[in-house]
């Protein structure tokens, strides 16, 4: 920031940049893959629920698109006293 | 070998048509044979910006449907004999634009031209995806403003998934054309800077077109800005962008960037 800007009121471009970065990080994660991500999430919950009691809310599925490869992140939070069901 | 370019943006009003006309004309002025194609069925404007609105007889849909030959629909520019326009239909339903029909027309154009520059409609619907479908190169037109940057990001996602190249596992070449840039506003911190937009969208920069009255003046007259006054700042910026598309190594400069006091006195014209 130049000395001239110092005496002016706060500039707005940095806010635009920051808002875009946050928004696009989110949109790129889901965006076009949102259907696939939701489907995967549903099925993963079903598979886990066969063996462990798990809260559907605690299962996070995230797809990140990169330049060379994409990653699929599955984050499942198990309760401390997770009840393991006997295999059917 | 013919190269197909799509000029796209997602958002409307950012300068797709102006850029299509300016880049097409600049490429043609190099002596290469260029066809500019309007894909905006129902809202055609490339004919108007090119000054050919009264010469339209047949259009893209006539050719797609076999009512006219491609050679009948192409309009040769009066100022540059290697520049041709294929207008969109103003009255027909855009559902008449089929994927197979477009593919056939594009194939035929490729045989006869060095460059095919497709002006995409705004949005992400079928018209836009058809315009980008056969492109080798995408020029993503973006204003330094939040909604335009967001929509460009969306379009980049589509370019990487919905184009023929992407479906064949190839990479489509993508370039950023930053339009309506005002260096003094960016310097004051009231407009996203070139580097901000580049960092967010992370595609290579093709050119920076300054916000300028010359662009409006050129469209008032129906002249591509690169043909109206070759020394205006936007004309230079577009001409340099076209040279980069053609593979020349042209140093990038930010038009209207603040210079020192001496630069202001001595370097005025060197945009």
From TrEMBL, chain A:
Keywords, ordered alphabetically: Cell cycle, Cell division
InterPro entries: MinE, MinE_sf
Biological process terms in GO annotation: cell division; regulation of division septum assembly
NCBIfam families the UniProt entry points to: minE, PRK00296.1
Function field: Prevents the cell division inhibition by proteins MinC and MinD at internal division sites while permitting inhibition at polar sites. This ensures cell division at the proper site by restricting the formation of a division septum at the midpoint of the long axis of the cell.
Family membership: Belongs to the MinE family.
Descriptive protein name: Cell division topological specificity factor
Gene name of the encoded protein: minE
Automatic annotation (TrEMBL), chain B:
Family indicated by similarity: Belongs to the ParA family. MinD subfamily.
Function: ATPase required for the correct placement of the division site. Cell division inhibitors MinC and MinD act in concert to form an inhibitor capable of blocking formation of the polar Z ring septums. Rapidly oscillates between the poles of the cell to destabilize FtsZ filaments that have formed before they mature into polar Z rings.
Assembly, per entry: Interacts with MinC and FtsZ.
GO MF term (any one): ATP binding
Name of the featured protein: Septum site-determining protein MinD
Domain of life: Bacteria
UniProt binding sites for ATP: 11-18
Alphabetical UniProt keywords: ATP-binding, Cell cycle, Cell division, Nucleotide-binding, Septation
CobQ/CobB/MinD/ParA nucleotide binding domain boundaries: 5-224
GO (cellular component) term, any one: cytosol
Phylogenetic classification of the source organism: Bacteria, Pseudomonadati, Pseudomonadota, Alphaproteobacteria, Hyphomicrobiales
GO aspect biological process, one term: division septum assembly
PANTHER family on file: SEPTUM SITE-DETERMINING PROTEIN MIND HOMOLOG, CHLOROPLASTIC (PTHR43384:SF6), SEPTUM SITE-DETERMINING PROTEIN MIND HOMOLOG, CHLOROPLASTIC-RELATED (PTHR43384)
The species this protein was found in: Fulvimarina endophytica
Coiled coil (UniProt feature): none
């Amino acid at each position: 920031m130049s000395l001239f800007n110092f005496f002016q009121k706060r500039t707005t471009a940095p806010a635009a940049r920051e808002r875009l970065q946050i928004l696009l990080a989110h949109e790129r994660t889901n965006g076009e893959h949102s259907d696939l991500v939701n489907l995967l999430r549903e099925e993963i919950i079903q598979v886990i629920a066969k063996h462990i009691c798990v809260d559907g809310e605690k299962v996070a599925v995230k797809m990140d698109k990169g330049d060379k490869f994409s990653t699929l992140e599955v984050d499942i939070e198990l309760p401390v006293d997770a009840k393991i069901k006997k295999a059917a | 070998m013919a190269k197909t370019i799509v000029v796209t943006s997602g958002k409307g009003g950012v300068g797709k048509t102006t850029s299509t006309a300016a880049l097409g004309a600049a490429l043609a002025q190099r002596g290469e044979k260029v066809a500019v194609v309007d894909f905006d069925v129902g809202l055609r404007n490339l004919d108007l910006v090119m000054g050919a609105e009264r010469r339209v007889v047949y259009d893209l849909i006539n050719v797609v449907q076999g009512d006219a030959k491609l050679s009948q629909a192409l309009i040769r520019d009066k100022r540059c004999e290697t520049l041709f326009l294929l207008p969109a239909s103003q009255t027909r339903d855009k559902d008449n634009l089929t994927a197979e029909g477009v593919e056939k027309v594009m194939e035929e154009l490729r045989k006869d031209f060095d460059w095919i520059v497709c002006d995409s409609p705004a949005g992400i619907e079928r018209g836009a995806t058809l315009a980008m479908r056969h492109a080798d190169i995408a020029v993503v037109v973006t204003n330094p403003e939040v909604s335009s940057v967001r929509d460009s990001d969306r379009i980049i996602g589509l370019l990487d998934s919905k184009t023929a190249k992407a479906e064949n596992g190839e990479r489509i070449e993508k370039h950023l054309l930053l339009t309506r840039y005002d260096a003094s506003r960016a310097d004051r911190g009231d407009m996203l800077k070139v580097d901000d937009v580049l960092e967010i969208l992370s595609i290579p920069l093709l050119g920076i077109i300054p916000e300028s009255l010359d662009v409006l003046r050129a469209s008032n007259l129906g002249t591509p800005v690169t043909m109206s006054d070759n020394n205006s700042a936007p004309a230079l910026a577009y001409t340099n962008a076209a040279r980069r598309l053609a593979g020349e190594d042209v140093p990038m400069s930010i038009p209207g960037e603040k210079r020192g006091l001496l630069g202001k006195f001595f370097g005025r014209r060197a945009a």
